[in-house]
Amino acid sequence: MKRGHGRKAAKGAADFFKVIWYCMKTLWGTSPRYFAIRIALSIVSLSAPFAVITLTKSLMELLASGYAQASAANAAIGQCLALSLALLALNVLGRAADTLDAYYSGLQRDAMEASVKYRIMEKAAGLDLSFFDSTAFYNEVCDADRNSPLITSTAFYAMDLARYLVQFLVAFAYLFRVSPALPFAFVASAIPCTVVQIKQVEAIYGFQRQYLGEERKMQYTSDVLLLREFAKDVRVYNLFPFISRKFRDIWNALFSKKRGISLRHTRALLALFALPEAVAAASLFLLGASVVMGRRTIGDYTFLQGAMAQTLSGVYLVISSYAQLSDGKMRIQNYMRFLGFPNKVCENGTLELGTGLFCIEFKNVSFRYDDGLPWVLKNVSFSFHSRQKIALVGANGSGKSTVVKLLLRFYDPVEGQILVDGKDIREYGLASYRRHFSTVFQDYSNYAFNVRESVGLSDVSRANDEAGILAALRESGADAFVSGFPQGLDTYLTRRYEENGQELSGGQWQKMAIARACFRKADIYVLDEPSAALDAQSEDEVFRMFHAMHEGKGAVLISHRLSNVHLSDMILVLDHGTLAEQGTHKELMAADGAYAHMYRLQAEKYKDVG
Ligand code: ADP
Prior knowledge:
Bound molecules: adenosine-5'-diphosphate
Strand content: 5-15%
Radius of gyration: 36 Å
Largest sheet: 6 strands, mixed
Helix content: 55-70%
Mean pLDDT: 87
Order of helices and strands: HHHHHHHHHHHEEEHEEHEHHHHEHEEEHH
Number of strands: 10
């Protein structure tokens, strides 16, 4: 049992030093200059009080001596002046160092916060899409992002702790000179409140981790009231009372639990903080008595007083920065864990997929999103080449988008293989492979940047290719409304990024997304339900234009309106994750299977309307 405790404590200490080391490395890495300046300033501001204590002792002893002769008194006044000036210089120096330190620590904090935020963004942007399927992971991202200022603070606590430890150790040595037992008594008296403080921060952080999901729910409820996408519903349905009650219910429950934890520890702390003060008062009393009895000088008394004040402040500062660091330690460990999350879709492929025709083959591919979840694709096999236009059709949930996600390597097949020119897709460099595709997803993204950027995002290396951007806008039909914007391509979309942005309708957004896909010079264009928000005429134009402008290019089209896909070189019909039929429109109509049935059903409807 004891050995178990020992091992746990050793591991705790090792973790603690690992965190401190990591913090120091990160601070240094953010700005070696600020780091070095702050160390130099710390040395000055740490040394000044101790020099003051020593000089004050000499001054006191000088003042306490009797001066019978005028010459001795004059010499003493001279010395007194010199000591006073030296004290002045030291105090000014100490203050100056503290003021400069506040200035540099502000700069260092800003730089570090930006760098932590940057690393979180960089990591999140490179993670597998599958991470975003998991609530637990989403909690981790929110936790890391929300805690980014606290992560910075923790690095600062690590620096403070190192500094206060030095202050404490020097003060310890000073006290040791007066009485060897005294500094040990101090340390012993400070241990109980240190332990309680650490337990308090651990309990509160443990509590926060445990209720992370609740905090996410609170955040979501506030989002519903604050974000634009919900603003209409909130007003029409008068949602504030309902949503705010949800928020309050969670807050009330969390608050009362947290208050209970804090109160328990605060009660203990109130009693325990008296201990080091009692040791200080007893020592001063004993030393005062020995001064009265003539065994010590008044200089010794002031020296002890100064050294004790330094020790006490050192003890409190070490305790508080240690407690803060223990709290932050877990945040830093989470941050380190987050940065270390390994991707499942590994990027260790080295083959380059060159320009020119290539062939893609799904070979007995089966897939499910996670181990416990149902199979979404079962034993799917088909192949096509990069100049063919293929269409995926089937009911909702039959697996069409999943085929696309596997094709783009957002996920890897659980069973079977995807081959590109006969080699496993995993053998290719991810970026070099994805470079051949351009996409409009069902849940395409709307960017608040200006029109030029919103279109150019699909190939930022050609962001200045105005002719290309205009052609893409024409191709998607977006030029019809963009040409009416007073600032043309420089018009911002929505008012989220720029005050005077332009609002778009659902169909207009979709045309922007199609323009973005068209701007990219790809081999295969993937359009997953690209026309859901378009009116019938626009939709027809988009598909016509698309076929005309991308002659000789490959495409993977998903559309529920079969009139859009009947020109495709090959149509794949998915049914509950299996490939039910495959062939050209003509072949499938002749086979008179599921496709022919669906096609006739839709044609009938149009006839009725017509
Ligand atoms: P389709 O595009 O044909 O409508 P999808 O490929 O989007 O179908 O979805 C196929 C099945 O996979 C559906 O049952 C859907 O619920 C499930 N699915 C899709 N995405 C995920 C995901 N990220 N995690 C778990 N299941 C998913």
